[in-house]
Design goal:
Length: 194
């Protein structure tokens, strides 16, 4: 099966959004809460309903861009961020996106991609980050779907994709996951190496 725009829009249209935590998750919120520079250029790929995106908006961050294959989740997200320009809500493929960011936030995007794309994901993150920029978020560290998302994996496996390209500032079991994900997530804070 191809996990393309049709696949993901179908999930939204049928309300099959089991991945959606319903609000910003604790690890991402606590990370955002210690950021002081509201002008950071931030990308949230595969943002879906983007609860953390709305949170960034509410906290006064100004330079946030989101990209999702499906326009469906923007129907709820876009109206929640009225002061941001339309151009920041991109419908498209993350792998085709061009730009430069200080921070990229990961939440249930990596696990939505076919595992064969994981090295490409790490390489693309590296390409999109400014010198010293960071990829921050959570990754599932349990086996999950065999044939369709979410796809799981292990800390050891994930480490291989980022090695040599990023400094692992944090790459450890997440201590503040939301309850349903507790014990099953890795928190990552990876700084781009030149
Ligand atoms: C599992 S959902 C997670 C959504 C959101 N991050 C959340 O936690 O609620 C994965 C999202 O990634 C999007 N997606 C999948 N492949 C993509 C790609 N190549 N480029 C951009 N978005 C993609 C899907 O449309 C979907 O909205």
């Amino acid at each position: 099966m191809k996990f393309d725009e049709q696949y993901w829009s179908g999930k939204y249209l049928q309300n099959q959004t089991g991945w959606d935590a319903g609000s910003i998750t604790t690890p991402i919120k606590e990370y955002i809460d210690q950021l002081t520079d509201k002008d950071l250029r931030i990308l949230v790929p595969g943002c879906g309903h983007g609860h953390e995106v709305h949170y960034l908006y509410s906290q006064g961050f100004k330079q946030v861009t989101v990209i999702d294959l499906s326009a469906e989740p923007y129907k709820t997200l876009r109206p929640k961020c009225p002061d941001w320009p339309d151009g920041r809500f991109i419908v498209g493929d993350f792998f085709d996106h061009q730009g430069e960011y200080d921070l990229i936030i990961e939440q249930t995007f990596f696990c939505a991609l076919e595992p064969g794309l994981r090295q490409q994901y790490a390489d693309k993150m590296h390409a999109l980050l400014a010198p010293g920029g960071k990829l921050v978020g959570v990754l599932f560290t349990i086996p999950l779907g065999d044939t369709q998302p979410p796809f799981g994996g292990s800390q050891e496996e994930y480490g291989r994709y980022f090695a040599g390209k990023f400094t692992f500032e944090v790459f450890a079991p997440c201590y503040n996951s939301i309850k349903p994900r507790a014990g099953n997530e890795l928190f990552i804070k990876l700084r781009k190496q030149p």
